[in-house]
Predict the 3D structure of the following.
Amino acid sequence: MRFRSIDRRQMNYYSELTVNKDLAKEIRMYNLGGELTSRYNSVFDKYYKGLKSLIVRENVWQIAFAVLSSLLSCFFFAYIALGVFEGKYLIGDYSLYTGALTSISGSVTALITTSATIYEGTLFIDNLLSFLREKNHVVTRVKDPLVPDFGKAHTIEFRGVSFAYPGTEKPVIDRVDLTIKAGETVALVGLNGAGKTTLIKLLTRLYDPTEGEIYLDGHDLRDYDLTELRRLFGIVFQDFGKYAFTVRENIRLGALHREEREGDITHAATRAGADAFIDRLDNGYNTNLMRYFDRNGTELSGGQWQKLCLARAFYSNADIIILDEPTASLDPIAEQEVFRRFDELRGEKTTVFVSHRLSSATIASKIVVLENGHVEEEGTHRELMDQNGKYAELFRIQAERYLEENAGK
Ligand SMILES: Nc1ncnc2c1ncn2[C@@H]1O[C@H](COP(=O)(O)OP(=O)(O)O)[C@@H](O)[C@H]1O
Ligand SMILES: [Mg+2]
């Protein structure tokens, strides 16, 4: 089973693709159905061939043993019958001995099958045990872990941080030194694959740096209690989760540990600009989302989901707010509104956001330009424009596009 697990995973993967709701569009438009089925079939053939030889071997042995034990039984039965015939045994002895023989052979068979089942079971349990023995590498490294000071602004410091994803060699983050002061708003800017999301994963301790340290309020992240540390962050990931729960539950996931107070949810939704579309839903905040379990469930658009996810981050009321391309699916009006509110509401909180629309980066107190995993430039919008480097180039490209479009009108 272990040997064939890649085959099984491949088969599961292909068959899931063919029934995936989100891929249905592409599978039809590119006509991928046949390709996926034939890939499934070729893996299945390979898998089945391997499995067949195993099953055949197992069954040949089983049949051989069944034949042998039947022959033995027949022999003894005939032997006893012969004894009765010759007058050595009474007729009652025949039923006594054959009965005993049947019950003994039944018990021995049961013993053998049970031990075989136990043996087979231990093979599977070995897999489970070795899975359970897998060590969690992201753990608190001290005996008495620290608890962050909740309810105040925090400083964050990266010192010589490098990082390569486990099982890879290439450093995705390369000797980053970066200080984010308490209450600062930092915009991470950079091309696709520059390492922005990875930097956020390191900050929230989803991974530990390969080299260097990250400090929160002067203490290494690894000295904090992991659960408490993560409660510090209200985050919208680039690939955020969509849950087939109600609207209210989707927002409440941002802080399950907290008692829900009247108005908290609607307040968070308003801050994220999600209240307008939620109010138009049939059951408002109690509308079931997606149609996995509810025939009348509501499917939201990409931008609506994104607003809901922002509401989740605001509901968490966390000390550090992190938004990874939070407005990528929003219309320009919604985007501007989100950043305006965000700017207004972040108060004293330390915040980090990633955005490709540089017009939004102008609200940041510090802009950090990442390139190939290292900090290429950092400073305010004004400073970076004066420096006339990478940021200024990116900014001008975007600005020109808008100007050209205006000029064309
Ligand atoms: N889970 C992962 N395993 C291995 N490499 C990854 C993983 N996630 C991202 N990468 C690599 O890390 C680099 C930076 O990715 P990312 O931080 O997501 O970029 P950005 O958010 O700036 O677009 C990319 O080259 C990507 O291929
Ligand atoms: Mg990213």
